[in-house]
Amino acid sequence: MISKSFSIGFIGLGLIGGSIARTIRRIYPDSFIVGYDVDKKSVDAALSDRVLNESYDEIDERFSSCDIIFLCAPVSINIDNIRKLKEFIPTEVLITDVGSVKAPMQEAVKELGMEQQFIGGHPMVGSEKTSYAASSDYLLENAYYFITPSSFTQFRHTAMFSSFIQGLGALAVTLPPEEHDFITASLSHIPHIIAAELVHLVERGDSRNGMLKQLAAGGFKSMTRIASSSPVMWEQICQNNRTNIKKLLTEMIDDLSQVIDHLDDEDTSYIHEYFRSAGEYRNSVPEHAVGLFDKVHKIYIDIPDEPGTIANVTTQLAFNNISIKNLGIIYSRGEYEEGALEIEFYDDEACQKAIEVLENRNFRVFVQ
Fold first, then answer.
1. What domains sit in the chain, N to C, each tagged with a CATH number?
2. pTM for this predicted structure
3. Which residue of 10, 45, 90, 145 is surrounded by the most CB atoms within 10 Å?
4. 3-state secondary structure the chain
């Protein structure tokens, strides 16, 4: 087991690296955390927040004193960085990464002869935002955290790291790297491509006056939010997990071709079953854990257009010590937005409490 005063190194301090570092600082305040990032603003911010004890201007032997080193850059950069670490990191130092594709990193580790001290990792959380400024010390809470050791990884490293991750509030799941890459292709990589394609589809059909863009609120904007993610990151992901992505995209094209055929045949029973079975499976997805996309804690309230109504809602929430993250008025109600007032909260606890408070006061509340 690691002591409470262990030393942790971070190479990369974006959304994921910053969130893990913040969480460690909150749970293990006596830990010694050092970091490096090509973006000096992120490093300066982490120092200012007292998340980092020290920052380094390059990757060198100073990292050799760490108990664990987190590689939190894109996959190809993580591979370059572990090659640098190979020159001076002793074998007792555990090295891990947080990339959403594991196979290329695992291959590089094998070539370097570092399998015994490396464990692949991937917290199943994310956002369209990728900067340290968007990081949170609660991002890992109740999130699945994949751990992908090789057959050569020292058992003590795997046991210690799994315990450590669970201590941060995440749910550790151990599985082979290949299985991990198929899962993330299915649940994250393909949905991101579909979101981007939906945006391209609407963009191509938009008129010169941008009518579709003006009408693309509600369901469309929610479904395509992840299309705003970093293009650099997704270029790397698609390249490094292209085999799984191509297989799943091919299956999807085949499925859509069947839908077209049944539309041509006016086969309404097939179309009915297509949506029914999708809805049934989707509704069976559990709500208890955080998935690959960050959950938005948002409600919609059906309110009349009368003076003082919004003030009444916010007063009720304030009286019950419920903090509001964001509030907006929906001028044109979309297909999924039944209410005219949109309220976003910081966490699920506040959201659930708000629903109870407002429903007890006879407001009609809808959950996203």
1. 7-175 (3.40.50.720), 181-283 (1.10.3660.10), 297-367 (3.30.70.260)
2. 0.73
3. 10
4. CCCCCCEEEEECCCHHHHHHHHHHHHHCCCCEEEEECCCHHHHHHHHHCCCCCEECCCCCHHHHHCCEEEECCCHHHHHHHHHHHHCCCCCCCEEEECCCCCHHHHHHHHHHCCHHHEEEEEECCCCCCCCHHHCCCCCCCCEEEEEEECCCCCHHHHHHHHHHHHHCCCEEEECCHHHHHHHHHHHHHHHHHHHHHHHHHHHHHCCCCCHHHHHCCCHHHHHCHHHHCCHHHHHHHHHHCHHHHHHHHHHHHHHHHHHHHHHHCCCHHHHHHHHHHHHHHHHCCCCCCECCCCCCEEEEEECCCCCCHHHHHHHHHHHCCCCCCEEEECCCCCCCCCCCEEEEECCHHHHHHHHHHHHHCCCEEEEC
